[in-house]
Every structure is written in structure tokens, then in C-alpha cells.
Amino acid sequence: MSDTLPLELFWNLSRFPQHLFYADQWGEHGWVYDPRAARYCLYDIDRKDQYDQVHAMLSRDEFIAQRLPEASAALRDWFCSFHCFPTPEEVFVVYPDSGAVRRYGLGEPSMDAAGRPEVPLMRTDIATTLRDPALQPALRAWLSALTSG
């Protein structure tokens, strides 16, 4: 485990599922899920002293075993609010309550104008995704099951 957030994650936090305990002009503390690495990350960012720190980097099974038993209702709700489906090219993160779908590309991040890594992300919705004729049958079945509940 790294003591700091990977640069790709640090510069793209707002693109990933997050549960913040607090965030203000001086810093933030919370959980972020990185679907590209399939890891839940407990982190702090201190903007005043300019550092970030990773306290835990957990797989889904580790998060369930180590954090959920004593988690707050808000953290449990966040954990249950999205579902992931990895493919060889991308990871689909689906929010069934809103119908939102985020598709994270697994290729190398591009660089933005300031030279920071930018994770490939396409935002769409479940209905649009299901209309895609190139959608893999397993993913189509998974999305249909999520929406039929």
C-alpha cells in the first residue's frame, strides 16, 4: 500500500464514487472507490500543509469484512449505492437508484493541459447503455437484472 494517493486517483477524485466525512477549503477526509483498481481507499488530503495520506486500501471483500460491521448508516448507504461490472476494456459503475452509468476506460490516462493524468470516463444512463448493439450479452443481462428489481 502506498502512503499517498496514486496521482491518477488524486487528480480525478471527483470522477469516482466518494463518501466524504468532511470537505472544505483546508482539506477532505473520506472513502473513494477506484473501479479501475477495484479498491476502496480511506484517505485524507490536507490542503493547508499540502499532503495526502492513505489510511486503508481494501478490496470489496476486505471492506465488507473490516469496515461494514461497524459502519455508519451513511457509509453503508454509499457502499450499496453503486454496482460494478468489469470488462477487459472498461469498468461499468451503475447507480440503480438514479439510472446513471459511468464507464471507466482501462487504458492509460491522457494528460490534461496542466500535465495531470485524466482518467477516461464516459457518463451515460442505463437505458442508453442497454440500447448499445455492441453491449456484451453478460453485461446486458446484468444491467437488466439491476433494473428489474
Give me some keywords for this one.
alpha+beta, 4-stranded antiparallel beta sheet, 10 strands, 24% helix, globular
Please provide a brief summary of the model.
The chain has 149 residues and is α+β, with helices and mostly antiparallel strands. The chain has helices at residues 7-10, 60-66, 73-80, 126-130, 137-148, and strands at residues 18-24, 27-34, 39-46, 51-58, 83-86, 90-95, 100-105, 110-111, 117-118, 121-125.
Helix coverage percent of residues?
Answer: 10-25%
Shape field: globular
* Low-pLDDT regions: none
What Rg do the Cα atoms give?
A: 16 Å
- SSE order: HEEEEHHEEEEEEHH
Q: Cα distance, first to last residue?
A: 37 Å
Mean pLDDT: 93
Largest beta sheet: what is the strand line-up? 1-2-3-4
Q: How many DSSP E strands? A: 10
Biggest pleated sheet? 4 strands, antiparallel
Characterize the structure shown.
It is a single chain. Strand 1 (18-24) and strand 2 (27-34) form a beta hairpin. The longest helix is centred in the last third of the chain and has 12 residues, at 137-148. This protein has helices spanning 7-10, 60-66, 73-80, 126-130, 137-148, and strands at residues 18-24, 27-34, 39-46, 51-58, 83-86, 90-95, 100-105, 110-111, 117-118, 121-125. Strands 1-2-3-4 form a four-stranded antiparallel sheet. 24% of the residues lie in helices and 38% in strands. With 149 residues, it is α+β, with helices and mostly antiparallel strands.
